[in-house]
Specification:
- Helices cover about 30% and strands about 25% of the residues.
- The protein has one domain: Vaccinia Virus protein VP39 (Rossmann fold).
- The longest helix is centred in the middle third of the chain and has 14 residues.
- It is built from 5 helices and 8 strands.
- The termini are far apart.
- This is 16S rRNA (Guanine(966)-N(2))-methyltransferase RsmD.
- Its EC number is 2.1.1.171.
Length: about 180
């Protein structure tokens, strides 16, 4: 696995061995960013189930200013820290070592990009996005990227967010929401 494009393009990323995380393939990662960007002129990103940190590192590589990565698994946290080190710009990243639910109560500033790839997709995504909106943690031009198994059906609307794009890549489905 590697950073696909941007300032860190081509640099290798570590992944977690085993089945506790499902790393997004380079092909799917490239497709996600082509759907939403592919490049950014600043902004804040929240990666609520960070895994290896690959998606948030890609977002920073492509022009986002700052990423908050949330991960509860200790082994995944070590991989994220190694991957952040690879960027040589650790000041652009914050790792919250806690479950996603708990992290939501400590977030205070709004985000321009939300990345969601939870283990139990539909229930977590709907609940998390409703909460983020209630707490005004999404900017008015926020883009939300949800990665799920292709069999998961997400609603067309979650509070004020509307499904704008959806595409299946192998076993993964990418759903994009915007205001």
């Amino acid at each position: 696995m590697r950073v696909v494009s941007g300032n860190y393009g081509g640099r290798p990323l570590k992944t977690l061995a085993g089945k506790t995380t499902r790393p997004t393939t380079d092909k799917v990662k490239g497709a996600i960013f082509n759907m939403i960007g592919p490049y950014f002129d600043g902004g804040r990103v929240l990666d609520l189930f960070a895994g290896s940190g690959s998606l948030s590192i890609e977002a920073i590589s492509r022009g986002m200013d700052f990423a908050v990565m949330v991960e509860k698994d200790r082994l995944a946290q070590e991989v994220i820290l190694d991957n952040i080190k690879m960027t040589k710009e650790s000041e652009k990243f914050q790792l919250l070592k806690m479950p996603a639910d708990r992290s939501l109560s400590v977030l205070t500033e709004p985000f321009d990009l939300i990345l969601l790839d939870p283990p139990y997709a539909k229930e977590e995504i709907v609940k998390n996005l409703e909460y983020l909106q209630e707490q005004r943690l999404l900017t008015e031009h926020c883009i939300v990227v949800c990665e799920t198994d292709k069999t998961v059906e997400l609603p067309d609307k979650i509070a004020q967010l509307e499904l704008t794009k959806q595409k299946v890549y192998g076993i993964s489905k990418i759903s994009i929401y915007e205001f």
